Amino acid sequence: MIDWLKTLDKKLFLFIHNGMSTSFFDFTMPWIRDKYFWIPLYIVIIILIIYYFRNKSVIVILTSLAVVGISDVISSGIFKPMFHRLRPCQNPELASHIHSIIVCGSGFSFVSSHAANHFATAIFIGLIFNEKIKWLLPVLLFWATVICFAQVYVAYHYPSDVAFGAIIGIIPGIFAARILKSWLKKSSSQLQ
Asked: Whole-prediction pTM value?
C-alpha cells in the first residue's frame, strides 16, 4: 500500500513538474513561492485587522503569528527530522527528470512548512474575518493552494508533502480562530 502511494505521489509530481511545464510557469512559480513576494498582502491583512478589530488588533496579530509558529514547529521541528525525506530536486532517482528552476537548497521535504504556514494563515485569517468579509476565506485558501502548487512545480516538494503540510496548518488555524472568536465575543459582551 505504501509503495503504491509513493508511486502515485512521484507520478503526480512528475506530471506537475514536467507535464505542466511552461515558460510562463517557469517564470512565475519561483516568485509565487517566495515569501517576500507576498509582503504587500501581509501588510493589507494587518491593515484589515487593525481596521476591523481596533483595540483588539494586537491580540489578533499575535495569535496569527502564534498559529504560524505552531504550524512551523510541527512541520519543521517534528515531521522533517522524523521522516528525513529528500526533496524531489535532491532525489537521485529523479535527477534526469528535474529541470532546475530554483536553487534546490537543503533540508527535508516531508512535510512542507510553506504549506503548513500558508494554510495556517489562510484558515485563521479567513475564519476570524468570516462574518465581516465573507469572500476572504476562499480567496486565502486559493492563495495557499497556489503557493503549494508552486512548491511542487519548482521541485521543492512532492504533492503529499504539501497536502500533509496543509493539514498541519489547517488544524491549529481552526482551533486558534475558534478560541479567539469566542474570546472576542465574550470580551465585547462584557463591555456592553
From this structure: 0.91
